Amino acid sequence: MSRSSVSAMNWEARFKSDTPTLIQSGKNGKSRTGALALDSDNEDQDITMASASESNSARARPVSVAPELYIQDDESPLSQLTKHWMNERHAPDILPAQEELLASLLDHIRRQSEAVQLLRGEPSASEEEHIRIMLVQMEVERVKFIVRSYVRTRLFKIEKFARFIMTDATIQTRITTAERAHASRHAHLTDRHFHNSVLQSLPETQSHLDDTPIFMPPMITKPDETRPVFVHALRDCPPIRFHE
Amino acid sequence: MSLPQSLRTSVTPPELELIASQQLIEIIPLIAVEKTAFISGAFGPLQPPRKAQIPLWMAINLKLKKKCHIVAPEWLSVEFLQSRLDEEINEPGFSKLPFRYAEVSKLLLDVAPDDIQSTDKIRYLLKDLREARQAKSREGVDQINRGELSLSNLCSMEINEIRPFFVHAMGILTHLHRDASAEDQP
C-alpha cells in the first residue's frame, strides 16, 4: 500500500485554518480536508493540517506531488531545511535527500563564521559591534544544530534499514551517494559480524540473514509504510480523499 | 547511536521552542545596530525608539541584556485569551490560536514579563485554555479508527503531546484490521 504523504505539510505556523489531521497512511479512503497532497511515493510526513472534516470513504488516487513543490520559493533555505528536518523526524521512511539545500546552507554557515572571525580581530569594535557579532554567531550555532539533527536522523534510518536499502532500488533514489556507501558498508559489517560470531556455527538452513520463515516477521528491517502520520495543511483546500 | 532513543518517537518541546523562536516579533530597541545579514535573512537596522521586526530568539537575547523591549503580540492579551477560552468551553471544536502559541507565550512570559500587561491573569488563562483543550484531545481518543481523524486548530505542542499515543494506537488498529481481512480471504 502506498504511504501517503502529504506534502505541503508543514508545521509552519499559519494562524489560519490549521487543522492537524491524523491520517492512516495509505489505507482506507476517507476524506480529509485541507491536506494538500498525498504522494504515494514519498514518505509520510507528520503534521499536516487539514481543515474540515467529513469522512466519507471515497476514491481518489492520491495525487503524486513531491513535497518540495509545496515549499514556496520565497522561503529562506533555513526555513525549508527546518521543514525537511521535522518531516524527516516524523516520517517512518527515508525522505528524498536535500543535497543542494544542505550544501548551500553549509556554505552560508562557513561564510558567516569567517566573517565573525574577521570582525573579532578588530580591537576597536564598539559594544554594538559586539552584539552584532554575538547574534551572528548565535545564529550559526542554531543552524548547525538543525543541520546536525537532520543529518543524524537520516543516518539513524539508514543504519536501521541498511540491509533493506541494499536490496531496494527505489529507496536508493532518495539517498545521496555518500549515504548509499555508508549503508552498504554498514550492512556488510553487520553481516560479517553476525556471521563470524554466530551464524557460521549454525546448520546451513539457518545460517542466513534473509530467511523469510512463515509466521515470523521478515529478517530485513523495512520502513513501516502503514504507520499513520500527522499532516498539516498550510492553506485551505478541498477535502482530500484516500484511495483504499 | 545516531539518534538517541528519546528522540525517535517525537520531537521534544525544546526543539519546538527552537523552531518557534524563528518567528518574527516586534521590538523597541534600546541600542542602535546596523543592518546585519543573517542566515535567515537581513535584519535591522535597529534605531531607537523605532520599532523593528526581528526573530524571537534575537529579541530574547537582546531582552536578557536589557537592550530592547518586546512588543507583546496581539493575541497575548487578557481580552483575546478570554474570548478564546469562552469559545473553548462553549464550542465543541478547538478554538483558533496561533499554531505555536504555547511555545511563544512561554518564552515571552519567562523572559519579558515586564513587557506584558497583567501577566498573572494571562498565565491563568493559558493554563485554563490548555486544560480545556487537553480534555478535548483526550476525547479524540474515542474517535481513533484506522482511517483518519481530523483535529482542526490543534497547535504544535498539542500535536506533539498526543502524537506518540495516537500513532501507536492507529497502527495497532490497522494491524488488527489487516489480520482480520487476511483471514477472510483464504
TrEMBL record, chain A:
Query: In which compartments does the protein localize?
Result: Nucleus
Boundaries of each GINS subunit domain copy?
129-196
The segment annotated Disordered runs over 17-44
A GO biological process of this protein is:
double-strand break repair via break-induced replication
Q: Which InterPro entries match?
A: GINS_A, GINS_bundle-like_dom_sf, GINS_Sld5, Sld5_GINS_A
Quick one: signal sequence residues?
none
**Recorded superkingdom:** Eukaryota
The keyword Nucleus appears for this protein: yes
Question: Polar residues bias: where?
Answer: 18-28
- What is the protein's given name? GINS subunit domain-containing protein
Biological source species:
Lentinula detonsa
TrEMBL record, chain B:
Looking up Gene3D superfamilies in the UniProt record yields: 1.20.58.1020, 3.40.5.50
Q: Which residues form the GINS subunit domain?
A: 75-171
GO cellular component labels = GINS complex
- DNA replication complex GINS protein PSF2 N-terminal domain: from which residue to which, for each copy? 12-71
Which terms are listed as keywords in the entry?
Answer: Chromosome partition, DNA replication, Nucleus
Note whether Nucleus occurs among the keywords. Answer: yes
> Which InterPro entries does the record match to this protein?
GINS_A, GINS_bundle-like_dom_sf, GINS_Psf2, PSF2_N
Primary subcellular site in the record, as a coarse category: nucleus
Instruction: List localization entries.
Output: Nucleus
Please give the biological process terms from Gene Ontology that the record holds. chromosome segregation; DNA replication; double-strand break repair via break-induced replication
Keyword Nucleus on this protein?
yes
- Write down the superkingdom of origin: Eukaryota
**Assembly and interactions?**
Component of the GINS complex.
Give the record's family classification. Belongs to the GINS2/PSF2 family.
Name of this chain's protein: DNA replication complex GINS protein PSF2
Organism, as annotated = Lentinula detonsa
Lineage runs: Eukaryota, Fungi, Dikarya, Basidiomycota, Agaricomycotina
